[in-house]
Design goal:
The complex is a heterodimer of chains A (425) and B (661). Chain A has 425 residues and is mostly helical. In chain A, 67% of the residues lie in helices and 3% in strands. Chain A folds into two domains: 323 residues, no CATH class; 75 residues, no CATH class. The model of chain A has no long low-confidence stretch (mean pLDDT 85). Chain B has two domains: 200 residues, Penicillin-binding protein 2a (Domain 2) (Alpha-Beta Complex); 372 residues, DD-peptidase/beta-lactamase superfamily (Beta-lactamase), CATH 3.40.710. Classes of the chains: A mainly alpha (425), B alpha+beta (661).
Chain lengths: 425, 661
């Protein structure tokens, strides 16, 4: 028992307070989102989302206590078992789930309660990845290990895509940051970012212009950045290769967005480029959420005083578009404070991760930060019109039991590991 | 290893956060495209409630219409120092009501209009309009309430009322707001979706002072209100009103069906009350009185009651017996020699049995039916044959809902093998335990709709069509569900019907309907009396019939509670209704007079004695008194999208419908 510590001292209270601030603020905004001045109900009424969210919040206390009192070694030792279990659960979901809005990702438990295993799969993928990368002798820069790590991260989203829950599947892209931190050559994330930029360019401009632009860029690169002695035949071939691959990517993207994507997904991308192309249809969310946020001004309209986020102008108000309510009722100040709290939380997690003596805890910490960041990146980006509409929640703020629980578990497993950081796992 | 990458990753995180903060700065601080909305602060959503659809009878006469009234709203901050006493006198409200409603309005919102007083008549509105100059802050909105020009069919039509909390919370798509009106019972509930129309929504921009700044986005998001669809029912209001008057002072019900189509021609549950007394005004008070009345006028005895069919059920026994071959029309049974008593008449064949409603005859029919098996053990034979019998009787609609277009219909009970097994134990019962089914007593229970349906089935010689009240919806009169045209065939061959139909005609002309009370000149009425036993008091008088014998136009079932023998009260009422429907006039005035003046108190009413209050009637005074709005759940102003239709009351040709003494 000598290794036991007092969890109240070991736990990082700064993170806990940041977490609590976000959850509480989320709850208040969920109430504002469902608040109808014609029919005021109390924030505790469980007939509406706010009251239900309070129940979810209360139940997280139990989860947190369980996480904190379970032996910290469990998360490492059982990582693969958890992972295997969640994979089976994801597969089972395809068959057991009842279809909600076209996706088969919700398992009904009883008559009123349903769970989305996809949300929880991130936690266990993170644990399994941390376990694998912290194994003695495993090195991400080695091709074989990179493949195994890639598979660990790649399998869950494939199954989730089969559940037609593309948004959740996309969040697994967050793990690229973890790979990078653990030694994946920088060229890969850089390539990823370059391709992303190219992707966006293709959406906004004609593909031939993009290819022409690429040619110009290559020419400029050749004459302006390469020194005369570097302009060898070999380098010319290399540059030509890059140009050909990039051009192929451009045409591939065009083909993908017009032929492979479902019509509703195509529209989401289309309205990102031009929200006015379909203001009442697919552009509705984008336009309305932008109007709502914009109308908040500097200090906002005041709590419960929002008008744009009422009357169902913005669908999914309390879930994926909760940031609209923040923007409208709390204005620029409120929105920026939320972003600052998130930034502080990410900063704190990464700094804590770097302090870990065990590689497992550090990698897991990076996983937590990356997943939180990716959700923030996509969710807020979509509400302010910088990202296509992808239905993923804003961590801790969005309404929903599955998402609140999964983010809470994700974070508190890390805090538990951190509390024991003096002991190498 | 790679510690430096921490900085790169964090920088990337912060970079995105920074870009987002800049974007927010642009959207919320610099870009003022949408600040017009932001600075005005209020986008007002105005809901336009469309007129509810009206309900007509089969000849285009109005049964349910709308009357335009005014709802008064108060906006507290606009209210100045005022003479409360004058105000209260003007609207005939108490000071307490004024204070409490005002307090609720203030706590709801000082700047928004709150419902203060519901349903001021047009006359009242005209009376107070001038005086309102001295009471700023009070505004009027046009609204409507339901009115029933024909003053009939209260239970079948149903009423509308404020949506219940349960129904409000149960709605999947949020359409109703609390305080909205919704059909609660009857056709108003069944056809709520059609009647309510589609509500319109109008978004207007307001500035901080609440001034209208025009429609939002050029009305791009507004929707127009669509008036509710009218219902065209199958009811013949003249026959219906005759039934209302004939039932004066009586309790029971009458229902008539057009056999070929299943269209319901009349459907009344009595004691009578005027549906207008449940329309908005004084709803609470009148409803309570109706609810407390020992005769339970709110119970729809036609579709939801539970009664024993009595001797009318013998027709089913005869048909099943004929079909199974246990009897032929010539089968002769001697009266007596049965545990059921006979009323004293000559013994004879099936025709004779129907004509005199001979109990021993049908006891023997059922006994023979139950022994139509090679099984000799009576404890084993009974279940075998009962299940066969049950399957055939079920086809007449017994023990199940017929599917009438009303929200509540009782299935009744048709006992099966399982039922008796549960009661007596498996193989513990035989014919002698169940013989009372033979004459419609014992465990079988029905509502009168099923009995009228039996008459229709016999009239059709073997099939029935789902009874229904609505035959057209909306302008083109389409939209009635196909199940109301569905033909349900029984297992009985058409050739078996003539034997009992002849007996039914004789029953009316020289049989159980005594004194020629059922004879209508020129119309061959085929009927069957029933006298169903009543534990508490005098028997219920039942009569089912159809007419004419060939090519029948109407099938009917009438039940008068505690009126005794079926031929004495139910049969005259039923035949009068048939006469009215087929001849459009009543020639048998003496019988009509007798029925109008006959008053029969139910056991329940007698038990209640002097405590029983009479059924409330519509008083002229109650139409002009405004009803205070419920001081809870204030609603926002509503507006009409169209002018209500002017209506005049249809005076029933037969007076007397308002007296229920």
């Amino acid at each position: 028992m000598a290794r036991d510590i007092d969890i109240r001292e070991g736990i990082d209270w700064t993170t806990v307070w940041l977490y609590a601030a976000l959850v509480l603020f989320g709850w208040l905004n969920i109430y504002a989102a469902v608040y109808n001045p014609e029919n005021p109900i109390t924030i505790f009424s469980t007939s509406h989302n706010a009251g239900k969210q309070l129940l979810f919040i209360s139940s997280t206390f139990v989860l947190i206590l369980i996480i904190l009192f379970v032996d910290y070694k469990v998360y490492d030792s059982f990582a693969y078992i958890f992972y295997g279990f969640v994979i089976l659960l994801l597969i089972a979901t395809i068959f057991l789930a009842t279809e909600i809005k076209g996706s088969r990702s919700w398992i009904k438990l009883g008559s009123t309660f349903s769970l989305q295993p996809a949300e929880f799969s991130k936690i266990f993928t993170a644990l399994a990845l941390a376990r694998f990368l912290s194994t003695q002798g495993v090195n991400i820069s080695k091709f074989r290990d990179a493949i195994v790590a890639g598979l660990l991260v790649f399998v869950p989203p494939i199954i989730i895509i089969l559940q037609k829950e593309t948004g959740s599947a996309l969040t697994f892209a967050a793990f690229i940051a973890v790979f990078y931190r653990e030694g994946l050559p920088g060229i890969y994330p850089a390539l990823g970012i370059a391709l992303a930029i190219l992707f966006v360019l293709v959406l906004f401009f004609n593909k031939f212009y993009v290819v022409a632009g690429l040619a110009v860029a290559c020419g400029l690169f050749w004459y302006m950045f390469l020194k005369r002695y570097e302009r060898t035949r070999q380098n010319l071939i290399r540059l030509g290769g890059v140009f050909v691959i990039a051009s192929a990517f451009v045409f591939g993207v065009k083909f993908f967005t017009t032929n492979v994507l479902q019509p509703h997904q195509q529209k989401r991308i289309q309205v990102l480029v031009n929200p006015d192309s379909d203001p009442l249809g697919a552009g509705w969310n984008v336009t309305q959420s932008r109007v709502a946020i914009s109308s908040g001004g500097v200090i906002g309209k005041g709590y419960l005083q929002g008008t744009q986020t009422k009357f169902d102008f913005v669908p999914e108000q309390s879930t994926d578009f909760i940031f609209c309510t923040v923007g409208e009722e709390w204005g620029f100040l409120g929105s920026v404070i939320v972003i600052l709290i998130f930034a502080a939380l990410l900063n704190r997690i990464i700094n804590l991760a770097e302090k870990q003596r065990s590689k497992f805890s550090r990698i897991y910490g990076y996983c937590v930060a990356s997943i939180l960041f990716f959700h923030l990146f996509v969710n807020i980006g979509m509400t302010i019109g910088l990202m296509p509409v992808i239905g993923i929640p804003l961590p801790f703020l969005s309404y929903g039991g599955s998402s609140l629980w999964s983010f809470t578990i994700l974070l508190f497993i890390f805090l538990k590991l951190d509390a024991h950081r003096s002991y190498k796992v | 290893m790679f510690q430096d990458r921490k900085q790169i990753i964090l920088s990337f995180f912060f970079l995105v956060c920074g870009i987002y903060a800049l974007r927010l700065f642009y959207l919320q601080v610099i870009d003022d495209t949408y600040h017009t909305i932001g600075s005005t602060g209020a986008l007002k959503k105005e809901v336009q409630i469309p007129l509810r659809g009206q309900i007509y009878d089969r000849n285009g006469k109005l049964l349910v219409a709308n009357v335009d009234v005014y709802d008064m709203y108060v906006t507290p901050y606009k209210v100045k120092q005022m003479d409360t006493t004058t105000f209260c006198r003007l609207f005939n409200i108490t000071r307490t009501y004024f204070d409490s409603t005002m307090a609720v309005a203030k706590s709801y919102s000082r700047n928004r209009a709150t419902l203060f007083l519901r349903q001021l008549s047009k006359e009242d509105y005209a009376r107070v309009a001038d005086a309102m100059v001295s009471f700023p802050g009070f505004t009027f909105e046009l609204s409507f309430f339901r009115t029933y020009p024909a003053r009939t069919m209260a239970n079948a039509l149903g009423y509308i009322g404020e949506i219940s909390k349960k129904a409000y919370e149960a709605q999947e798509v949020e359409y109703y707001r609390s305080g909205d009106y919704i059909g609660i019972t009857g056709l108003e509930k069944q056809y709520e979706m059609e009647l309510r129309g589609r509500r319109g929504v109008k978004f207007t921009m307001m500035n901080v002072h609440g001034e209208n700044k025009g429609s939002y986005s050029n009305g791009e998001y507004d929707t127009l209100a669509v008036i509710g669809k009218n219902l065209f029912t199958t009811v013949d209001v003249e026959v219906q009103q005759l039934a209302d008057s004939l039932f004066a002072g009586k309790t029971g019900c009458a229902v008539a069906i057009e056999p070929r189509t299943g269209e319901i021609l009349a459907m009344g549950s009595y004691p009578y009350y005027d549906p207008n007394i449940l329309s908005g005004k004084q709803f609470a008070k009148n409803f309570k009185e109706l609810y407390r009345n020992p005769d339970k006028p709110l119970n729809d005895r036609v579709a939801t009651g539970f009664f024993r069919p009595g001797s009318t059920f013998k027709l089913v026994q005869a048909l099943v017996g004929l079909q199974l071959g246990s009897i032929t029309p010539e089968t002769f049974f001697v009266c007596g020699n049965a545990p059921v008593k006979c009323h004293g008449h000559p013994s004879g064949d099936l025709h004779n049995g129907v004509r005199y409603s001979c109990n021993p005859y049908f006891y023997n029919v059922f006994r023979k039916t139950m022994s139509m098996t090679s099984e000799t053990n009576p404890f084993k034979a009974a279940p075998i044959m009962l299940s066969k019998w049950h399957d055939m009787v079920e086809k007449f609609g017994y023990g199940q809902k017929l599917g009438i277009d009303l929200p509540s219909e009782s299935s009744g009970l048709l006992p099966n093998v399982k039922y008796y097994d549960k009661r007596y134990g498996s193989n513990q019962w035989k014919f002698s335990n169940i013989y009372s089914l033979s004459i419609g007593e014992g465990e079988v229970s029905v509502n009168m709709l099923k009995m009228a349906n039996l008459a229709a089935t016999i009239a059709n010689r073997g099939y029935w069509v789902t009874p229904h009240l609505v035959r057209g919806i909306g302008q083109n009169g389409k939209g009635v569900a196909p199940e109301y045209r569905e033909i349900h065939k029984t297992d009985i061959d058409p050739r078996h019907f003539e034997a009992i139909i002849g007996g039914m005609q004789d029953a009316v002309e020289r049989g159980t309907v005594g004194g020629g009370a059922g004879i209508v000149e020129g119309i061959a009425i085929c009927g069957k009396t029933g006298t169903s036993q009543n534990k508490k008091g005098k028997d219920n008088s039942i009569f089912i019939a159809f007419a004419p014998r060939y090519n029948p136009k109407i099938a009917i079932a009438v039940m008068v509670q505690n009126a005794g023998f079926g031929g004495s009260v139910a049969a005259p009422i039923a035949t009068l209704m048939i006469e009215k429907y087929l001849k459009r006039k009543i020639e048998r005035t003496a019988i009509k007079e007798r029925m109008l003046n006959l008053s029969i108190k139910t056991v329940e009413a007698m038990a209640a004695g002097a405590n029983a209050k009479p059924i409330p009637v519509l008083t002229p005074e109650s139409t002009s008194k405004p009803t205070p709005a419920a001081p809870v759940a204030p609603t926002k102003p509503q507006k009409e999208s169209a002018k209500p239709v002017k209506t005049t009351f249809i005076k029933p040709k037969d007076e007397n419908i308002n007296t229920t003494k």
